[in-house]
Design a protein that fits this description.
The protein is an alpha/beta fold. The protein folds into 3 domains: about 40 residues, Helicase, Ruva Protein, domain 3; about 100 residues, Dna Topoisomerase Vi A Subunit, Chain: A, domain 2 (3-Layer(aba) Sandwich), CATH 3.40.1360.10; about 30 residues, no CATH class. It has 8 helices and 6 strands, in the order ααααβββαβαβαβα. The strands form 2 sheets. A 4-stranded parallel beta sheet has the order 4-3-5-6. A two-stranded antiparallel sheet has the order 1-2.
Length: about 200
Amino acid sequence: MEYQNPLDDLIHEFSKMPGIGRRTAQRLVFYLLSLPKPEVKTIAQMISEIGEKISFCENCFCFMSLEEGCSLCNDKTREHTKLCIVSDQKDLLAVEGMGKYRGMYHVLGGVISPLDGIGPDSLRIRELLLRLENCNFDEIIFAIKPTVEGETTMLYLKKLLLPFELKLTQIAYGIPVGGELEWADQMTLYKAFEGRRHLNE
């Protein structure tokens, strides 16, 4: 069913978002229409001001509030000797949501993908190297997507970081808790074997 403008225009704009199809976009728009007008105005104002209130931290490239600064870099209780490299903000939130890692981050802004026209110069690698020259990190943790592009990015960075003589580690990939071996793909199973640990230590 087609709707009249501006309703259809709004549905169309919502459907442009990643992971949002037309049906989901319709549900979102209908939800907004069901809200009291003051609430809709508040949401609309927050969206319109997002570019004025939120930006990237010039140090770690995480999203930050322009008023308060970077909550990660300014947190003196964090371990400033550990640096976790992630490809994007979503991966940072996943690691941070674990509640166990208390070190610093560096958001690359993607992974190397020649087919998509993304090379090393498209990522924040130069900024990473500058941080390593000016900070006292003792461990670099790679938490990059376990894809071909992610592995390519990690191997490229590893070569660049070896001269710094830092401890380089990578998060383990493998079978999720409660998962079945028979449903695991070959790469996942291979990574699970590669990341196996000793039980007699």
